[in-house]
Predict the 3D structure of the following.
Amino acid sequence: MQLLTSLIDGLLIGFVYGVAAVGLTLIWGVMSVINLSHGPVMALGMFSTYLLFTNLGVNPYLALIAVAVFGLVLGLVIYAVAVHRVISAPHLSSLLATFAVNMIIIGIGTAVFSTSPHNIDFSLGSIYLGPIILPAARLLAAVAAILFTVLLYLFLYFTRPGKAIRAVANNRMAAELMGIPSAQVLALSFGIGTALAAVAGGLIATFFPFTILSGGPYELKSFVICVLGGLGNPLGALLGGLLLGGLEGLIPTFMPVSWVPVLEFGLFILVLLVKPSGLLGAKT
Amino acid sequence: MKALQRFGFWLPVLFILIWGLYILTVRQDSAREQAFTLLMFVGLASSLNILLGYTGYVSFGHIVFFGLGGYSGFYFLSAHNLPLLLSALLGGVVSAILAGLIGLAVLRLRGAYFALATIGVNEAARAFVSNFEPFGGATGLFVNYSVYQGFGGPGPALWRTFIYLWLIVLITVIISYVIKNSRFGLGLLAIREDEDAAMVMGVKAPRAKTLAFMFSAFFPGVIGTLYFFKNGNVEPGDAFSLHMSIEMLVMVMLGGMGTVFGPVIGAVAYQGLRGFLLTSPLFKNLHLAIAGVFLLLIVLFVPAGAIGWLRERFLKLRKVLE
Amino acid sequence: MILEVRGVSKRFGGLQALTNVSFTLTAGRILGLIGPNGAGKTTLFNVINGVYAPDGGQVIFREEDITGKPPYEVAQRGLARTYQVVRPLQELTVRENVMVGACFGREKHHKAPAAHIADEVLAFVGLAKKADLLAGSLNVAEKKRLEMARALAARPYLLLLDEVLAGLNPSEISAMIDTVRQIRDQGITIFMIEHVMQALMTLSDEVIVLDYGELIAAGTPEEVVEDPKVIEAYLGDPKIAQRLLAQESPDSLA
C-alpha cells in the first residue's frame, strides 16, 4: 500500500513536471532553442504566486491565471530581447543568450527576495481514498496541470495562431512561404513555453518551500523529461513527466533517496545515446 | 620549432610566464590567491577551447572533468599519500581516460543533443559521487594535516601548489597552440566547420574528436586536484558546479573561441569584471544580473569574442594573434 | 579496372533508392552518370565513398572490397569527391581547405608539404590569388573550384564529381570542362554526375543511366541517348527530356 501511495504521489507531481517540460519542449520543437532561462522563470512563477497570495490574499489556484499571463508577457520580452537575434546562429549562441537571461533573473531575484526559503501557507489538508492518503494540494496541482495541458492542446489544434505554431514547428521555411509571420509565431511560442514554466512554478510553490534558485533543479528535470519523451514532442513531455514523477515516487522505497538523481541522469544519458528521438518514438 | 618564431605563440606564453614570475617576486598571499583563481580559469577555458573552439562541440558540463579529475587526484593524495604533483597528474590521466570512455558514447551526438548529454553527464557524476563512499559521499574528502609537513607547513604548500598550477596552465596554453597549428588540429578545425565533409576528405573524425575530448579533459583534472588541495577539501557541490561550467564557456566566448589567446584574456576579463562587480558597493547585490547583461550583449553583438573580432576586423592581425 | 560496383541496393525506410546496381569503371576514363531527379545518383556516390553502407552488394575499389567502410577510410585509399551543394570549410582559408585534402587524403602529408601541394593545386584550378581568403568569402564558381582543389590535393586515383557544372555561367562551364579534361590527362579516373547534357556528352567516354534507382542503360554517349528506355525515363521529366532531345547549348541549361 505504501508503494501505491508513493507511486500516486509521484505521478501527481509528475503532471506538474510535465507542464514545465511541455513548455521547454514546445520552445525546442518550434525554434530548436534550449531555453536555459526556464528554471528562473519557474522560480518567478513561484514568487508571483507567493506575492499574490501573501500580499493580496488571492487564492493560489486563481493566481495561476495571472501567473500564466505574466509568464507569457515575460516570454515575449525574453524572446524579443535575447532570442530573436540568435535564432539562426549556432546553438551555442542561443544557449548562452538564454543563460544570460537566467543570470539576469537570478541576479535581480536574489537582490529582491534574497536566497532564503519562502513558502505559501495555504493548507488544504489531505484526501483519503480508502487506505491511500494524498495531500490535497498535490491532487489539485495535478488537476490544474491537466487543465493547462488541455488548454494548450485546444489552442494548438483549434485556433489559428495554434495551427500557425504547429506549421512553423513542422517547417519554418515552408510556413513563411505560405505567409505565416514566423517572427510573431516564434515569439508567441516562446511566450507560451515560459507561461507554462511559470504556471508549473506556481503549482510547485503550493506544496514545496522554494527560493529564487529553486528553478534550477526543475529545469534539469525538464531536460530529462523532454529527452525521455522526445525533444520537441509535447505529448511525450507530459508522459515523460509522469514517468519521472513515478520513478521519483517509487525509487526511494527501494534505495536511499540520494540515488534518485543518479538513476534519473543515467536514464537521461542512456536515452540520448540509444534512442535520441525519445522513448515514445516520436520523430524529432 | 617554427612556433618559436611566431608572435601568436609568444604572446600568451609570455603573458602567463611574466604574470607568474611577478607573483613569485611580490610574494604576497593575497596576490597569490587572486592569481591562483585567475590562472585556474585561464587553464580551464583554454582546455575547453580545444573541444569547443577547435572541434566545435559545445560541452556544457565540461566542469565534470575538473570534478572527476580533482576528486581522483585528491583521493590519491589524501587516501594513499601520493605526492601532490603525481596525484594531480594522475587526476588528469583519470580525467582523460574517463573522457575517452564518455566520448566514445556521447561524441556521436551533435549540436544541442551533445550539449544536453554533457549536462546529464555532469549531473549524473555529481549525484554518483555524492553517494560514493570512497570519495566521502555528500561531505567529500579533507586534506590530512600531516600532508603539509612534507612541504614544511601549509604556507609553503600553498606556494608550491601555485607554482604547479602556473606551470600546468603554461603547458595547457602551449599545447593549445601546438594542437591548433598541427595536422591533428587542422583535422579538428575541419570537423568544426563540417564534420561530414571532413570525413569525406579523410579526417578520421571519431578518433580525432575523442582525442580532442581527452586533451580538453586532462588539464581540468590536473587543475582540479591542485585547486581542491589548495582549498583543503573537495565536495560534490564545488566539484560539479554547472554554473562554473557555463562560466568557462562564457570566458571562451568572451575572448574568442578557436583562438589561442582568446580564452586567456577571456578568463582574465571575466574574472576581473566579476571581482569588480562583487567588490563595488553599487553593484554588489546585482553583480550576477549585470554580468548577465554583459554576456547577453557579447552574445548578441560580438559573437566572435574580443580576439575573434580583432582578427575579423583587421586582417593583418591574423598573422599576429592566434 | 579501378572501380567495380556489384549488385548494390540501398533503401531508406519505404523508399528503394538503389536496386541491384552493377557497373565497372576502367582506369583513366571518364564515366558519366545521368538520370532524372531523384533517380538515386547522389545516393550511389554516397554508397561508393562510404557515407552510406549499402543494404546489399559490394563496392570494389582497386581490387579491394571497400563496402561499408567509413568515408575517411575510403578517402585514404585514394577516392575523392566533390559535393553537388558546395561545402567549403567556411572559417578556414582557401589554402587551409585544400591542405585538409592533402593532409588526410591518400598521401597523408604533414602540414608543410601539404601547404606546398595546396598552392600547386590552387594554381592549377586558378585560385592561387585567393589562397589567403576565407573560403566563405568565395563566389559559387570559385567554391566549386575549391571543392575540386580539395579533392585533387588528396592525390586520388578516382574522383567523383557531383554536378560541378550546375549553377555556373557558360564561360565558367567551358573553363570547368577544360579543367576536368586536364585532370583526366593527369591520369585520374573520373566518375561524374551531370545535368548539363552537352558537356557530359563531349566529356564522357561512357555513360550509365539511373532511373528510380535502377541502372537502365550503359554505353557510349551516342548509344545511351538513342536508347528508347532512356528517352522514356526522361519523358517522365518533360523539362529534362526537352533539353536532352533539343541538345541545346549549355548557357540555357545552367
Q: What stands out?
A: Chain A has eleven helices and two strands.
